[in-house]
Amino acid sequence: LDPKSFSEDSMTVIDFLADYYKYVEKYPVQSRVEPGYLLQQLPNTAPHCPEPLENILKDVNDSIIPGLTHWQSPNFFAYFQANASTAGFLGEMLCSGLNVVGFNWIASPAATELECIVMDWMGKMLKLPSSFLFSGTGGGVLHGSTCEAIVCTLAAARDKALEEIGGDYITKLVVYGSDQTHFTLQKASKLVGIPRANFRSLATSFSSEFALSPDVVRAAMEEDVAAGLVPLYLCATVGTTATGAVDPVEPLGHIAKEHKVWFHIDAAYAGSACICPEFRHYLVGVELADSISLNPHKWFLTNMDCCCLWLKNPKSLIDSLSTDSELLRNSASDSKAVVDYKDWQIALSRRFRAMKLWVVIRRNGLANLMVHIRSDVNLAKRFEAMVLEDERFEIVAPRRFALVCFRLKPKVDRGDGDGSDLNRRLLDAVNSSGRAFMTHAVVGGVYVIRCAIGSTLTEERHVDDLWKLVQEKARFLLLDNTL
Ligand code: PLP
């Protein structure tokens, strides 16, 4: 690693990326390549000799970029975004450039201490109770994904429960979420050894606006207890993936306490919005939770990857995940006066993600982060208003954040059935135009088109163009000139 060529080559790559951002709007948003396309274009063995950076960047341009779905395009309205920003990129450069591996405190004291500081900063911005903060009685850690956060908290809950009821009883433990909970909970349950039959995906409905009903949870837990099972873990979601629904945290928290189950809040997407006072009420009752997670890589201007996990009792996580290796023994760890993050996560090695989040927070400040959330929400309101003005369309689930779920209303006399096929064709037509990309969900048996707003480059004109595109494709589909 020669500092001079490091600087020159890095500048070349940064210029390449700056150009990419300049023209990203011009690419078809969703990639159009066929499976296996890349093997047709690249050699199938590694080069023996070093290659010039220019040749590599040429291949990125000619072969890789056409195979990308452009997540940073202003016309990307699919899934939930992976927000990129200059600050996020600068932080990522520092993280990657310094390339330290802070698995325990001594392996890079600043990496650990910055993570503790940043987790408290984030927690305070969200007005989390001090029971989740290092400055209080809890603490937080940065993972790469919500899935990891849930696996780790489930492992902690499992071990705590098995210690109380006896190690052989894993087959009795039950995990609860709703049919809107992200599938990551089911995957995590499998990974920690919860029997498939003990995973409860409790029904939600249009009438509950796709939120988990406390009565349904209570009934399910009581039924399981009566059958000799042991409720273990309840996951509430603030901002579900399909529609942005919010489970009622406070009543669910009380039920969790009654049954002594671990209560986790998955705020992967919408947690970021809770830094704004007008959205903070969605976290009322958070003090009843054992843990809460949020992905800054979704809606907090933080480049991939970054997931915040706060715990009220980090010791339960450490008890479950710590391993005692002679190779890593050191006096700081022995003194118990430091945080060793290897015991808060699955892997040993870890990235210096705190650097990235720290730069994002400092370069924006709480003020600009709130502006960012509010401007996306306003764009979503703008799109929602356009949908509502057109009586052929309907909003299928209430919009709470920057996600709008809508569809063309099916008509019996047109033979639209339940409308799934009609809306699938509409979405295909929009996406295959290359001018925008949205995804779908099926909720309460209804196929909906999701318009998730939040790409950093998206402006009003992109939202307006999206709506024109939807109308244009609908007109073609319905063969109706009045649209
Ligand atoms: N939870 C919610 C509510 C999500 O929307 C998502 C992803 O969209 C996840 C969890 C999964 O997050 P990750 O990919 O970080 O595991």
UniProtKB/TrEMBL annotation:
GO biological process: amino acid metabolic process; carboxylic acid metabolic process
Keyword set, alphabetical order: Decarboxylase, Lyase, Pyridoxal phosphate
Signal sequence, renumbered to the chain: none
Positions of post-translational N6-(pyridoxal phosphate)lysine modification: 298
One Gene Ontology term of the molecular function aspect: pyridoxal phosphate binding
Cofactor: pyridoxal 5'-phosphate
A GO-annotated cellular component: cytoplasm
InterPro entries referenced in this protein's UniProt entry, alphabetically: Aromatic_deC, PyrdxlP-dep_de-COase, PyrdxlP-dep_Trfase, PyrdxlP-dep_Trfase_major, PyrdxlP-dep_Trfase_small, Pyridoxal-P_BS
Family note: Belongs to the group II decarboxylase family.
Protein's UniProt name: Tyrosine decarboxylase
Source organism: Liquidambar formosana (Formosan gum)
